[in-house]
Amino acid sequence: MTMTRKTLGILAAALFALGGLSCSSDLTDSSAPVELIVTNTQDVSRIDLAGDVAGSTACQGNIGTINMQVIPKSGAATGDFVNVRVTSYHVSYQRTDGGKLVPAPFTRSIDTLVASGGTGSIPDLIVFQPGAATQAPFVALLPNNGGRDPDTGLPVVKMDVIVEVFGRTLGGDNVYDATRFPLDFCYACGGCE
Questions:
Q1: pLDDT of residue 79
Q2: Distance between CA atoms of residues 102 and 176, nearest Å
Q3: pTM attached to this predicted model
Q4: Cis preceding linkage at 137, omega within 30
């Protein structure tokens, strides 16, 4: 009986500790007085790797812009402490064509202040690391590598670029939101558009 009580006591303490850990690692704080809303304006939906690999400037434009807005949750959310300092964004990828290979995700630090009720954008948005066009899954689309994605057998790789934006109110509450850019990648398919 004593062994059972000790085991239950240890189990209860472990569950309590796990519950505390999960709460402290939340990305967002539901009690934040403001909400960070992230959207995008997409300029390019197809990337022709022929220009990128050959060093052409045809595909050197921006994929798009990240737009941010800080919206107060109630009329009481005013003052400098509800302004949001955006501190980083994380880029990851999800195939939409059934393929599995994706570029490695990465995180970039930034420092942008968005006032409560105001808007902002991420300057110099980077959604692919330098050299990504010469790595999997894109390298398989090059003619000398067969020109087809090994996962799907298609000459096009389709994926969503997911951009997660992280910030904190000046009062210390975490805020977060994400947006997606659907993109098609091909080689010598008529340029970027």
A1: 82
A2: 24
A3: 0.80
A4: yes
